[in-house]
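Students often ask why inverse folding is considered easier than folding. One informal answer: many sequences map to the same fold, so there is more than one right answer. In these notes we will look at a single instance of the problem. The structure comes first.
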């Protein structure tokens, strides 16, 4: 039994530290929403006499990475009381959580950082970006009405099952495979959310999750299955032109462009660094990875990682799509890289070739290029936050 795992009867102490650490006012709604995460998480903490000194959540999820399912634990609500800070409490909890993940067969971990530098010391790396698009109402595009299809408005509490299925169908770039409880959590956490549902012949083909904030119309989530759904939902948005001054969408696509607008310079685009990822079980990630070539001559590379089970010389070859992976610390590696650099490359955020140019990898350039060609080139996308 992990000495840092909190019993479920410690929710009140966890909640009190949460309110203080994040300067949040108490409310029945906030308490209820945090309790949902508490009940579904592995909760870690260090008691300081009768109070909680440090705490965090490790929440079990699954993600779809290029049509391969991986277990992923989300780290959230990392906190320490100020009088307990500086003693390494949060660090001990993080290390303990990562060890438990490995023992539980978890391959990946994501988190939302308060400091990118702080979490890099635990092997996490930034791989998710968002593009924030802001358009004034006077600059919205003029669109013709679609000749078929329709849009229906609904409250978030009326979220249809077909929407969940459409999300899952379009989610394959490292985003979360949302369990029913996580959908329910989103509904409970954000009662202000509304839905715009695009239909063609009674079939859901796209949707918006949005909310309004003062003079802003804010799109939280936008999923389309065909050009008609794009047209229908864009038209729906522009029909709010006389009501709101600004229209804002934070897209999980870091390469979102404004070139399809009549006046691309009318939109303000801002790339926003989002969440970080960590490879917890490198062996599993390499063996089940969605490889991009069927054959690879053997490459030997040393991975530097604080997690001892990843900190090895890995010998990898692929023959007709069959992965042959071994650990052999006696081999002289073709090149050496950190787990953070490998995470960027395997997630498609930045290639090994690019990392080589910036001096973040050193070694045999041909072998680096060979391994680089194995990994996906499309950047990952993540909407969810925890």
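Output (designed amino acids):
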């Amino acid at each position: 039994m992990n000495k840092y795992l909190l019993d479920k009867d410690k929710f009140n102490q966890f909640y009190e530290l949460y309110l203080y650490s994040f300067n949040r006012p108490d409310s029945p709604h906030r308490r209820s929403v945090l309790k949902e995460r508490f009940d579904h998480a592995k909760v870690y903490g260090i008691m300081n006499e009768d109070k909680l000194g440090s705490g965090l959540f490790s929440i079990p999820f699954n993600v779809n990475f290029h049509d391969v399912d991986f277990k992923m634990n989300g780290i959230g609500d990392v906190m320490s009381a100020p009088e307990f800070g500086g003693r390494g409490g949060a660090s001990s909890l993080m290390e303990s959580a990562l060890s438990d993940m490995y023992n539980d067969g978890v391959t990946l971990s994501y988190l939302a950082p308060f400091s990118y530098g702080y979490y890099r010391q635990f092997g996490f790396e930034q791989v998710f970006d968002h593009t924030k698009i802001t358009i004034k109402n006077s600059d919205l595009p003029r669109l013709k009405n679609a000749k078929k299809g329709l849009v229906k408005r609904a409250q978030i509490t009326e979220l249809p099952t077909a929407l969940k299925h459409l999300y899952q169908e379009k989610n394959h770039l490292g985003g979360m495979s949302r369990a029913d409880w996580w959908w329910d959590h989103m509904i409970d956490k954000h009662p202000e959310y509304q839905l715009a549902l695009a239909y063609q012949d009674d079939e859901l083909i796209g949707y918006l999750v949005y909310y309004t904030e003062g003079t802003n119309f804010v799109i939280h989530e936008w999923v389309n299955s065909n050009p008609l759904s794009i047209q229908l939902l864009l038209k729906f948005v522009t029909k709010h032109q006389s009501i709101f001054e600004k229209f804002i969408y934070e897209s999980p696509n870091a390469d979102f462009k404004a070139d399809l607008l009549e006046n691309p310079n009318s939109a303000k685009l801002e790339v926003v660094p989002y969440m970080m990822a960590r490879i917890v079980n490198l062996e599993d990630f390499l063996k089940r990875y969605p490889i991009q070539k069927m054959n690879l001559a053997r490459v030997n590379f040393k991975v530097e990682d604080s997690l001892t089970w990843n900190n090895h010389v890995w010998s990898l070859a692929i023959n007709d799509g069959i992965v042959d992976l071994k650990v052999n610390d006696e081999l002289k590696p073709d090149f050496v890289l950190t787990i953070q650099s490998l995470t960027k490359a395997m997630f498609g955020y930045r290639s090994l070739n690019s990392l080589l140019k910036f001096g973040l990898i050193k070694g045999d350039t041909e072998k680096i290029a060979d391994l680089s060609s194995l990994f996906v080139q499309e950047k990952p996308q993540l909407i969810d936050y925890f």
